[in-house]
Design brief:
heterodimer, A: about 160 residues, Aconitase, domain 4, 7 helices, B: about 425 residues, alpha/beta, Aconitase, domain 3, 2 domains, five-stranded parallel β-sheet, about 30% helix
């Protein structure tokens, strides 16, 4: 998979309450509507600055906090093609894989707001075209790549009726 | 091969000898969703067009996050859950039953050695019963309900040993806040945490649940207190099922071992806006508060309410402070009524609301105003958590919250 887009820079420990506040997730069921509130408590009207295919770039422990699956769901529906972070919280990680949202684990310290990044999951690197820096990415286990390629676990189950990993 | 508790229980559920780092498909003993996550569980089941739900008898849904419904959006989700439960013949705990983590342990569906997943991040609470329990997202939960299994990565294990004895007025909440402050919010990401030591085993079951409940706040996948006699007796209140405790092997491999001395710990407060921003109470003593909340899956159990009542007995909540109390379950509520705790709390000026999560998760029942300070017994103080991103949430023990509600300021319960 090869992707290219703008970096939207966030810090360490971005929790699921910041990604999508609890006050909306219980009220709104439509993921497109919900996506308008992505990261709103950190950056008001953030969704307006996202172009289809952009990246969220963060530090360590991205997605910590609650188990709300609306977190990766709104990221996907806001048009973000992948989250690139130093590390991910466990439940967020599982949810994202299950929904088919690509997560890239690598050293993000050199990526700044609005840098243009190129991701190559086959050769395993992220290239910062704004600086020319290239960093290698931590590969995902094979069965997770399979789930993402199937379009998420729901599609995987629809196809096979059970786990086929 | 010497194994940790997580390695042993996951091995037993996969039929393979597993060690940290391995991936495996494991059978699940119990799973559930709540009203913040069940809507998406139902959507996923429908999208997958799954007819037979393999884990049907090992599943339940609980309406607790917005209970009773505060608005029409939530009402639609609740209706969807009730309809789904009826159509598929599934167990549903409707409004008033309580917070999922109290309802599930009281239901007798979690036993030592079990593997339990819940569509709620504080599912790790059940580790106090010697079970491996962890939070999942909705789709993951749907997969577990549909197939009766799911994939797991076997975690590394961190061993925490707490020696000494907690001082009077210092509680398990203070101990776990101290540990979280020391290890930080990602101090144990993906790890299983095993708790040991005399200070842990001296705790009641109610107090132990507070410890394992907050294991996720250091990023842990599991938080476990290996069972002892107290665990066994507590379980017998709720179930006659046979108990088979699982213990770590003597020479099991730990990623790290941390030691704490309970005797050196004073009451703690987690300051806004992260749970690991922990300080000794003296640093904040005297700070005025607007709202005080006692409840949640962390500290809404009978012992917590009893401690609060003992402090509030014959006293009044300070004018200008709103004290809200949410018992963790109907069982807890009833017990608190029978023993006079509710009367004491209400006489002091407390507002007792339906057992549930509302104030903690900001759905209703006490959303603070801009700039206000809320002192809460919950497990999270993230910006916006109680429903207003312009409010400030401080976390503490029920004793600290009760003592502070009386004074109108953050107050050391030992004084």
């Amino acid at each position: 998979m090869k992707l290219k887009g703008n970096a939207h820079r966030f810090e360490d420990s971005i929790n699921t309450d910041y990604i999508i506040s609890g006050r909306y997730k219980f009220r709104i069921q439509d993921p497109k509507e919900l996506a308008k509130h992505l990261m709103e408590d950190l950056k008001p009207e953030f969704y307006k600055s996202v172009k289809q295919g952009d990246f969220i770039v963060a530090g360590t422990n991205f997605g910590c906090g609650s188990s709300r699956e609306q977190a990766p769901l709104v990221i996907k529906h806001a048009g973000i093609s992948a989250v690139i972070a130093k590390s991910f919280a466990r439940i967020f990680f599982r949810n994202a894989i299950n929904l088919g949202l690509l997560l890239i684990e690598c050293d993000t310290s050199g990526f700044q707001q609005s840098d243009i990044l190129e991701v190559d999951t086959v050769d395993g690197y992220v290239l910062n075209t704004s600086t020319g820096d290239k960093v290698s990415i931590v590969p995902l286990p094979g069965f997770m790549t399979k789930i993402i390629e199937d379009g998420g676990i729901v599609e995987h189950f629809r196809k096979y009726g059970d786990f086929k990993i | 091969m010497a194994q940790t508790i997580a390695e042993k229980i996951l091995s037993a559920h996969s039929g393979k000898g597993l060690k940290a780092g391995d991936y495996a498909l494991c059978k699940i003993d119990f799973c559930f969703g709540q009203d913040g996550t069940s809507g998406l569980i139902i959507d996923a089941i429908n999208k997958m067009q799954i007819k037979k739900l393999s884990a049907k008898s090992k599943f339940c849904m609980i309406i607790d996050h917005s209970s009773p419904s505060p608005n029409i959006g939530v009402s639609a989700i609740h209706k969807k859950m009730r309809d789904f439960a009826k159509d598929r013949g599934l167990k549903l705990y409707d409004i008033g039953c309580g917070v999922c983590h109290q309802v599930v342990v009281e239901s007798g569906n979690v036993m030592p050695g079990y593997l339990v997943v819940g569509a709620d991040s504080h599912t790790c609470t059940y580790g106090a019963l010697g079970a491996l329990a962890t939070g999942f997202g909705s789709t993951d939960l749907a997969i577990s309900l549909a197939s009766g299994k799911n994939w797991f990565k076997v975690p590394e294990t961190l061993k925490i040993v707490v020696k000494g004895k907690l001082e009077k007025g210092v509680y398990s909440k203070d101990l776990i806040l101290h540990i979280i402050g020391d290890l930080s919010a990602d101090g144990a990401t993906y790890d299983s945490v095993e708790f040991y030591g005399p200070a842990i085993y001296a705790l009641s079951m109610d107090a132990r649940f507070t410890i394992t409940n907050m294991a996720v706040e250091i990023g842990a996948k599991f938080g476990i207190i290996p069972p002892d006699k107290k665990t066994g007796l507590w379980l017998k209140q709720w179930t006659t099922k046979r108990q088979k405790a699982v213990y770590a092997d003597k020479d099991a491999r730990y990623k790290n071992i941390k030691y704490y001395d309970a005797g050196k710990i004073s009451p703690k407060i987690a300051q806004p806006h992260s749970v690991d921003n922990v300080v000794d109470i003296h640093k904040l003593a005297g700070k005025p508060i607007d709202e005080a909340f006692i409840g949640t899956c962390t500290n809404g159990r009978i012992e917590d309410l009893r401690i609060a009542a003992s402090i509030l007995r014959g006293k009044k909540v300070s004018p200008g402070v709103r004290l809200i109390v949410a018992p963790a379950s109907r069982e807890v509520f009833l017990e608190a009524m029978k023993s006079g705790i509710i009367k004491t709390l209400v006489e002091a000026g407390a507002n007792v609301v339906t057992p549930g999560c509302g104030p903690c998760v900001g759905t209703h029942n006490g959303v603070p105003s801009d700039g206000e300070i809320a002192l809460s017994t919950a497990n999270r103080n993230f910006k916006g958590r109680m429903g207003n991103p312009n409010a400030f949430i401080y976390l503490a023990s029920p004793a600290t919250v009760a003592a502070s509600a009386v004074k109108g300021r953050i107050t050391d319960p030992r004084r």
